Amino acid sequence: PLRHNSVETFDEYNTGKNVGKGTPTVFWDIVPDSDKCEIYTYMAGGGCTLPGKAMVLMPGEGYEGVTKFVMDVMTSYGLNACPPLLVGVGVATSVETAALLSKKALMRPLGSHNENERAASMEKLLEDGINAIGLGPQGMGGKYSVMGVHIENTARHPSTIGVAVNVGCWSHRRGHIIFDKELNYTITTHSGVTL
């Protein structure tokens, strides 16, 4: 980019601190009995981040409430990113877990589906519903407002349904590399790249 896209929170101007601390944001997991390292990167701008929203629904709202929440977000904030969008939905107990899952959902390859049959069906229903809104490419109208809807979920407490939505724009700037214990690597998202 032409400028560093990170500013220090509460110190944004005239301080010389326009590089920010704690960036990029890194989440990590240790996988037992694994001798490889997988790195996922996702480069999202403000247009993709701005529509992000999360909340905890009451249990009586059910998965219909999740659908309504996603559609409300997409019809009120979805245009801040550049369609056709990839929509990541997280469903869990808390907003923080749901938000993280919604970002994780954006990392899945286009065309992939949740392994749970009912969640995969919901992905398709949401994709069809959002496309029916008619935002179209670049928000100029048309049949294809989204490239896909990906849902990631964990078990949840029966008394709450945490849900979050995040979007990625049409360029879908993601990367994935796997290192083995000998530091050999495989890049799954790009071809012709050498380190």
Describe it:
This protein is α+β, with helices and mostly antiparallel strands. Helices cover 25% and strands 23% of the residues. The protein is built from 4 helices and 7 strands, in the order βαβαβααββββ. It has helices spanning 46-49, 62-76, 95-107, 117-133, and strands spanning 37-42, 53-57, 85-92, 146-153, 161-168, 174-179, 185-187. It has a 4-stranded mixed beta sheet with strand order 2-5-3-4. A 3-stranded antiparallel beta sheet has the order 1-6-7, with no helix packed on it. Helix 2 runs parallel beside helix 4 (117-133). The relative contact order is 0.22. The model has no long low-confidence stretch (mean pLDDT 85).
- Overall structural class, as computed from helix and strand content, comes to alpha+beta
The backbone outline, from C-alpha atoms, is globular
Read across the widest sheet, the strand sequence of neighbours is: 2-5-3-4
Strand percentage: 15-25%
The total count of helices amounts to 4
Mean pLDDT: 85
Chain oligomer state: single chain
Euclidean distance between termini CA atoms: 21 Å
Radius of gyration: 18 Å
Q: Low-confidence parts, pLDDT < 50 over ≥5 residues?
A: none
Biggest β-sheet description? 4 strands, mixed
Order of helices and strands: EHEHEHHEEEE
Let me know the number of strands: 7
Residue share in helices?
25-40%
Structure described in brief:
With 195 residues, this protein is an alpha+beta fold. The protein has helices at 46-49, 62-76, 95-107, 117-133; strands at residues 37-42, 53-57, 85-92, 146-153, 161-168, 174-179, 185-187. The protein is built from four helices and seven strands, in the order βαβαβααββββ.
